Amino acid sequence: xxxxxxxVTIAFALLLSPCAKAQQSATENRSCTPSxxxxxxxxxxxxxxxxQKADRTILSKIFAETATVSTAMKGTFSNRSIQSFYTIxxxxxxxxxxxxxxxxxxxxxxxxxxxxxxxxxxxxTDMLNLVKDGDKWKIVNKTTHRHY
Length: 148
Hints:
Blueprint: H1 2-27, H2 34-53, H3 56-59, E1 63-73, E2 76-81, H4 82-92, E3 97-107, E4 110-119, E5 122-133, E6 136-147
Parallel strand pairs: 1-6
Antiparallel strand pairs: 1-2, 3-4, 4-5, 5-6
C-alpha cells in the first residue's frame, strides 16, 4: 500500500511539474533587449514628434490603421478609434513636449511600453501596446491617463 501511495505521489508530481513551469514562464516579464529598446525608442520619438506637432501624417507612420485609444479621464471611460484621436489632437493644436520611457516589455513580436509624457501644461501616463509588422513596430492600442 505504501508503495502504491508513493508511486501515485510521484506520478502526480510529474504531471504538475510541466504546468508549474508553463505558469512560471507565462508570468515572467522580459525587459527589452538593447536592440528592441532602440527600435521602440525610434517609434517613441516619432510618437513625440507627432504629438508635439499635432500631425496625423506623422503619427500614422507608427499607429496601426485599426488602433484604439482608451482613457478613463475624471472617472469616465472612453474608447476611440485612432482617427478620432487624430481629430482631437489636431483641434488641441501643437504643444512642446517630452517623454520618459519607464517600462518596456517584449515577447517575440509584441511589446508593452509605459511612458510619462508631457505636452504643453498637461502630464500623461501612456501605456502603449505594439505589434511587430514585418520589421517595424506599430502601436495597436494607447491607454492613457491624464494627471490633474
